[in-house]
Amino acid sequence: MLVEVLYFDGCPGHERVLPLVRRLAGQAGAKVALRRVETPEDADAERFLGSPTVRVDGVDVEPGAAEREDFGLKCRMYQAPDGLSVVPAERWLHEALAWRPRR
């Protein structure tokens, strides 16, 4: 299993999400890759919804993200229970990883 964190240099949100992603991926035995998106053309080709975008085996962790088409070099915000956040809900990561802690 591969967890990718896609980002671009104009938005520091990926730095906030990386510790959570690394912890949960490690518990699930998944690998983590950090990938920079550099141009608007790359954003379209990657279906990049903004920084940070977290994908597990190529699938965005945010429910409903596959239907979106607002790709581009921008900061991404996620709807959290207490408001907007640059970090996706931990529950989404658990579900995407079919979360099972390693023993």
Q: What is the number of beta strands?
A: 6
Mean pLDDT: 92
Major β-sheet annotation: 4 strands, mixed
The Rg value, from CA coordinates, equals 13 Å
Which stretches of 5+ consecutive residues score pLDDT under 50? none
The CATH topology name reads Glutaredoxin
| Overall structural domain count | 1
Name of the level-1 CATH class = Alpha Beta
Task: State the end-to-end CA separation.
Answer: 17 Å
Percent strand equals: 15-25%
Description of the molecule:
This protein is an alpha+beta fold and 103 residues long. It has a single domain (2-96), classed as Glutaredoxin. The chain is 29% helix and 23% strand. The protein contains three helices and six strands; from the N terminus they run βαβαββββα. It has helices spanning 13-28, 40-46, 90-96, and strands at 2-7, 31-36, 53-56, 59-60, 78-80, 83-85. The chain has a four-stranded mixed sheet with strand order 2-1-3-4, covered by helices on one side. It has a two-stranded antiparallel ribbon with strand order 5-6. A hairpin with a 2-residue loop joins strand 3 (53-56) and strand 4. The longest helix has 16 residues, at 13-28. It is globular, with a radius of gyration of 13 Å. 29% of the residues are buried. The mean pLDDT is 92.
Task: Indicate the topology.
Layout: E1 2-7, H1 13-28, E2 31-36, H2 40-46, E3 53-56, E4 59-60, E5 78-80, E6 83-85, H3 90-96
